[in-house]
Every structure is written in structure tokens, then in C-alpha cells.
Amino acid sequence: MKYYVVIPAHNEQDFLEGTLQSLVTQILLPEKVIVVNDNSTDHTEMIIDQYTAQYPFITKLNTLSSTDHMPGSKVINAFTKGTQLLDDAYDFIVKLDADLILPPNYFSEVASVFETNNTAGVVGGFVFEATKTGDWQLNHPMHKKHVRGAFKSYSKACYTAIGGLKNAMGWDTVDELLAQFHGFEIITLEGLNVKHLRPTGNAYNKKAKQLQGKAMYTMHYGFTITLIASLKMAMKQRKLHAFFDNMKGYFHAKKQKTPFMVHPEEGKFIRNLRWQGIKKQLF
């Protein structure tokens, strides 16, 4: 199967080489790789140039954007710019972060799923991060059927159906919800372990939480589901203010009549899906 990879990269000099090396040593090599050098001020571009010189299927795209690391818009803006250099002669497309080490069989396993299951829409493995003792430990805070945004593979049919990725906080939730709306499955592969080289930050970001509440509004969650989801998130993180910031973002988006990310019919499906998940956890 043919697949394309787009890697947004902003100041990734410490990790990018490891990611690219694990990509060029895949059992199933990609047809095309676009590395989007997103306003980097370190040696990221130099590393990209080293790989484009060796591997003709790797292309660099320089772009300018904000240095703000707010979740969602920056990375998806870079990803979307990268996809503009691609045609549609692929079987699946991959959004990949620049701080990962993939096992050599990663994309051969992903391709096998897409090849044998025409309802597979989003496929991926699991994130592992190094502990203080040097062991690699699973870090998957969401339910096991969720593919982390760091390495999402989409079938062409699914990617086309959902209209690409949303340039907003919550993109890696709404993509899977819309995939299911269009009849596609979300498939995670046990044993397909990806090493995440940059530990997930624990610093609290008030603005990010408000954007998360805004995303819940724009996904048509409605008040009750947003309330439950915000409470659950705050309890899991043991940060009560996360609940209030999330809800503040929701109410602000509602007051401003922020445009929805999804259509009313899609929103109805999303609410029903969320209620099903809530009921399964309760009963």
C-alpha cells in the first residue's frame, strides 16, 4: 500500500533525527514524506536538509507561523500546508509528530489493517514514555480505542469523508467522531509501541483549558456532556480549576456564538455517541 507522511516540526533539533531515521528504516517505506519546518530557529532545517539529500521521497517545506505553542491550530496549520504538496495517489495519509521513534514494522502493520479492513478509518499504536529509571511505560490517558494525535493514519476514504483535519483545539477528537459518523472504525494496535522522546508536559495551561471548553461547544456536546467531561477531566488531573476554566471556555464560545466545527446532524450523532460512552462507564 502507498502512504504519505506529513511531519510538522517547530524547533525539533533534539528529536527530529530520531524520528526521520525510524521512518527511513521502515519495512514498508512511505511514498512521500513532507517535513514542514514551521518557523524553527534552531538546527531543525539543517537536519531536514541532511535527510532530503539522502532520501528523494523526503521533501522540506519552510513556512512561517506564530511561535505560540497553543494546541491545535499551529500544528494542524503546518500539517495542512504540507498536504498541499501532495496528490491523492495514496492509500492512507499520516500526521506524524517530530519527536517519536517508530518500530520498523509500524507502517507495515498499519497498512495490513487498511488492506484487509475497508471500514478501518483511523489506525495507530500506543505511546510509551521513558520513566526516571529508564524503562518505557505506556502513556495513554484516553480510552484504548483512541489513536493519539502524535501518529494518526487515515484511509483516503476516511480522510476525504471527514474533510481533512480541523484547524482547532479538539482536532484529534472530532476527527474520530466524524470518522464514526461516516461509518469508519477507529483501530488501535496492541504491541505496536511508539517511543515518545519528549515527556508530556505537566504544566497547567489556563488558556488551553478554555480552548478545550470552546472545542466541546463547537463539537455540539451541549451543556450536560460538557459538564460531565469537564468534571471527569478535572478529577483525573486532580486540578479543580481545570473544570472551571473548561466551562468558562464553553460559555464564552456560546456567548460569542462561535461557529460550530460540525453540522447539526453530525453533532447529534456525536452527542449520542458520547452518551453511549457515559452509560457504559456508569453501568
Automatic annotation (TrEMBL):
Organism source for this protein?
Cellulophaga baltica
Please indicate which superkingdom the organism of origin belongs to. Bacteria
Write the record's keywords in alphabetical order, separated by commas. Glycosyltransferase, Transferase
Q: Kindly list the GO molecular function terms attached to this UniProt entry.
A: glycosyltransferase activity
Q: Name one Pfam family in it.
A: Glycos_transf_2
Keyword Glycoprotein carried by entry: no
The similarity annotation says: Belongs to the glycosyltransferase 2 family.
Please identify the protein, giving its name as recorded: Glycosyl transferase family 2
Start and end residues of each Glycosyltransferase 2-like domain: 5-146
